[in-house]
Write a structure and sequence with these properties.
Length: about 260
């Protein structure tokens, strides 16, 4: 059966859709070795294995909880930190969807990933790029206020994803690069609290929630302050839903020579 991402897209959600759109831009190569960095529960790893049935496929993630949800005896699942990952031999395809924004020092990470490719190899990456949007600047501004402890003030991840121009430079050794951004207008349904607050509670705010878990009063103060600002930045529709613009950066780089 030929690869048909549009068929998969019919069933895709906000999280999977960019991963499929990234996969669709991988050129027609015949990789023997593939790694999916930050594979999570492995949905996209399965699709990579399906598209490239002759390849040895590794799914790598540092969360055993995520890896415990994976299925397949034909894929090798490894619990490892991407930051410390150095393949034993060069890879034909390095794929990563919505994971590398959790890592620091992209100026070193991206050239290193490029070096890990075999001749003809492809690096394909997608990362959310919303660090300067109200979703991120609002909690950062609230936590920057002096009444929080130093630990709380520094708990949010700092701006890690840079402009596409930086990635173009860091991947200058590639023979071909393809970089683009897409903004998805995600309809978030009405919820008890502001829908954007519910959205970021599942991702960006997770470290804050964990840290303030023992201090319900402080947590409540923080969430109320965020919610107040989100109401202004992302007004609700008449049914309580909110349209959240969500920008993602896509990078495909190919190395022709060793
Ligand atoms: C948003 S999920 C994406 C999962 C999958 N790629 C997908 O698109 O469905 C991010 C994943 O990156 C993993 N991750 C984050 N930092 C990591 C690191 N330093 N090393 C390995 N995995 C990491 C997390 O455990 C999580 O499973």
């Amino acid at each position: 059966m030929p690869w048909d991402p549009h068929q998969y897209l019919r069933f895709a959600d906000h999280r999977l859709r960019p991963g499929l759109e990234l996969m669709a831009r991988i050129p027609e190569i015949s990789p023997r070795s593939i790694v999916d960095l930050g594979c999570g529960t492995g949905s996209l790893t399965h699709l990579l294995a399906h598209r490239f049935p002759d390849a040895n496929v590794v799914g790598l993630d540092n969360s055993q909880d995520m890896l415990d949800q994976t299925e397949s005896d034909s894929i090798e699942w490894r619990c490892e930190n991407i930051g410390a990952w150095h393949p034993e031999s060069q890879m034909d395809l390095i794929y990563s969807n919505a994971a590398l924004h959790w890592l620091v020092d992209h100026d070193q990470l991206f050239p290193r990933l490029l070096e890990s490719l075999s001749p003809g190899g492809v690096l394909a990456v997608q990362m959310p790029n919303n660090w300067r949007e109200p979703t991120h600047t609002i909690p950062a501004a609230i936590l920057a206020q002096p009444d929080w402890t130093d630990e709380v003030r520094h708990i949010l991840p700092r701006d890690r994803v840079q402009s596409p121009v930086h990635y173009q430079r860091w991947l200058a050794a590639a023979d071909a690069t393809d970089l683009w951004e897409t903004t998805y207008y995600q309809l978030l349904p009405s919820a008890d609290r502001h829908p954007v607050l519910e959205w970021v509670k599942g991702s960006l705010l997770r470290p804050v929630l964990a840290l303030l878990d023992e201090d319900p009063q402080a947590l409540d103060r923080f969430l109320r302050a965020c919610e107040h600002e989100y109401e202004r930045a992302y007004p609700r529709e008449s049914d309580g839903s909110v349209v959240l613009p969500f920008r993602r950066l896509f990078i495909v780089a190919m190395k022709l020579n060793g």
